[in-house]
Amino acid sequence: MKAFVPALVLSAVSFSVWAQDATVSSELIKRGEYLARAGDCVACHTDGKSGKTFAGGLAMETPIGTI
């Protein structure tokens, strides 16, 4: 048990530092917006009932089940 707690704390700190490293530039956001428009992502990711964009709502039948 004595070795478990320090290992747990060390792993938690390691993951929190890694998560904070995510910096987003305006160029990256513009690129994502461009790709979402080019791929017509809104067609499948819009709720059919409320019309809210990127809210899901379209069931897709696949060989492994409904997504």
TrEMBL record:
Domain of life: Bacteria
Signal peptide residues on this chain, from the entry's feature table: 1-19
GO molecular function, one term: heme binding
Protein name: Cytochrome c
Entry annotated with the keyword Repeat: no
Keywords attached to this entry: Signal
Gene3D superfamilies (alphabetical): Cytochrome c-like domain (1.10.760.10)
Organism: Serratia marcescens
Signal recorded as keyword: yes
